[in-house]
Design a protein that fits this description.
Elements (H helix, E strand, L loop, with lengths): L2 H11 L3 H12 L7 H12 L3 H8 L3 H16 L1 H22 L6
Length: about 110
């Protein structure tokens, strides 16, 4: 195994669970296979200031502000890692689809 593969595997093992859960939720929420840029865009939408953010601040929940900022920073600083994680789960989804519908293979 090359050094790059070892480092990639270790990085994926220590990736926060919220990232993996959010990616899997986005992937499973779509019928087909979607691109990495779409998924990263959805992650940004999830944690960017919006109605959820405003309601949390109005109710005095400053924890959400901190959490959303930390998560956006993580997303922005780890795009390559996110791309690898997305490809891993997309490949798993493609394989699952192939197993469920073997007659649709080329």
């Amino acid at each position: 195994m090359r050094e790059y593969e070892v480092l990639t595997k270790k990085a994926m093992e220590v990736t926060p669970k919220w990232v993996i859960n959010d990616i899997v939720t986005i992937i499973n929420g779509n019928d087909g296979v979607v691109g990495s840029s779409y998924i990263i865009s959805k992650l940004h939408q999830l944690y960017s200031p919006g109605i959820r953010y405003s309601i949390a601040l109005n109710m005095g929940n400053y924890e959400w502000h901190r959490v959303s900022q930390e998560r956006l920073t993580f997303i922005d600083n780890n795009l390559d890692l996110l791309d690898l994680i997305i490809k891993k789960f997309q490949d798993e989804k493609k394989e699952k689809i192939r197993q469920e519908k073997p007659f649709m293979q080329k």
